[in-house]
Request: fold
Amino acid sequence: MRGGPAVNAGTGRPDPGGHSRDNRKRRGDEKQLVPEAEFRSYYGRPVVKETVWGPDIPSYLFLGGLAGASSTLAAGAHLTGRPELARALKCGAAGAISLSTVALVHDLGRRTRFVNMLRVLKLTSPMSIGTWILSGYTPLALAAAASTVTRKAPRAGLAATIAAALLGPGVASYTAVLLGDTAAPAWHEAHRELPFLFAGSAATAAGGLGMLSVRPGKAGQAIRFAVLGAAGEIAAKSLLLQRLGPAAEPYQTGRAGQLMDISEVLTSTGLAVAVVAGRSRVGAPLAGLALMAASALTRFGVFEAGRASARDPKYTVVPQRERRQDVNPES
Amino acid sequence: MPSLHTGATPELGHPGLDPAAVAGYSDHPPRMGFFTDTSVCIGCKACEVACKEWNTVPEDGLVLTGMSYDNTADLSASTWRHVAFIEQPAADGDLRWLMASNVCKHCTEAACLDVCPTGALMRTEFGTVVVQDDICNGCGYCVSACPFGVIGRSETDGGAHKCTLCYDRLGEGLTPACAKACPTESIQFGPLDELRERAQQRVGDLHAAGQSHAQLYGCDQADGIGGAGAMFLLLDEPEVYGLPPDPVVTTRDLPRMWRLAAVAAGSLIAAAALACAAGRR
Reply:
């Protein structure tokens, strides 16, 4: 994985075994700046399987993060006397988590059996833990919103608001473990930074929702939350790219790279507008929209990076080969 | 109430782990498995056919891949044995054939089993890993978790499927269909301890005969999956056959992932508190 596309990736129809070594030598003679990754594969076919998850899942990564972080900010707004912002965020959280549930069930191969998720509680399965977190969080988020909208049962509403605020961050960050706990190289290798990337992205989205849905001048807390979230997201992403080195390539190239790049532009634009024109009637919602879109694109970008890294055997074989040689040099 | 008994491996990274005992079987038969000696495989694909016949695995299309005699391509929901064909230039300038019948590894530390959220994937008393089709809801998590790319989700019935090591035949004391059909005893079935010894013997014999590249795959119980329940003797590096050179079960890093996610969740609460407290001035 020492930079550059693998010998097999270029042709799409590589030879197995010894042939690819010869190809590499020939290419090496052509004075390439970066040496080709040296690895062999079975006709260039993937070693691990690409995820069978569809666009439902990155949509859920975004919506779940939006909901969870919105609940947390909503409680803060509620407790510090910002009812307008609190109401908008609670309603947003309830809507986002409802859509999430639809997306999650829709992605199943056998949708009518979605309740089988509740048969067991498994610490070794992030999807199992996530299901239980969601099962606790969703009714609370719905109750908090219902109480605010109907203005009924304010005490129960406050209790639900606070409980949802405590569970919400779990909804926003467990999804990083969901991806990290796979054999998709780009997801697993990034398992240290993904929780912070996702938490930051969730805060960016929730802050954006706040800016989009309340009157300008009432969105101060949302702007500050978005700034903190975006800072965390940018820091986590640069840490990820730096630590992974060549293994970060799936995040920087192809469709994933495009999505991540657009997300970055939208984040910085949204932040700049929020800070400069956060109190204007046009600026605030525009910035909010940009930040929410940025968060969604980040999730789709990370999702695509995992898919791309599973498709190309290079990302599976090269690091494992290096690991094996470290232990057993003659192998 | 949901059951806490799941069959997943709670103690990871312990060589010599007895997976059936870990899953809760107190009195169980010896761990059974495969030893696939690819040095005597002739590429007849009888294993592929026998597997499909016995397990009524649906056909998966008639396509020509252009990959030597391999038109099966890989293991999937509808392919539980897959014969790989590799053509290599040999040392004497002639052509060398490598043929290998791949199968589910029935890992000691099985990622598919660990991540399954419904308990559909379970450990049998023989130490093997099977999908209970009546429970699987097709979430597809096992597909992404398997470090070997073995298990797949069916397009037709939406469920996850893979080799069962012929669980139904094992219960009757029978040999799995693929091993039974193999005409050269390339696929050997038996108690894993015996197979391990046999594998060591065989690779020693091959080394003595000058086959210096012969190597065992999945035999080391200290490897990243705690040793495989389906081992192989290979004549070239694993990746040449489409096998990962050094697979590690993803759940080994899970405790760290949970810790970091908890810290991330905490910092989200802190960020909200900070954003709101600052606004009170």
In short: Confidence is low (pLDDT under 50) at residues 1-34 of chain A.
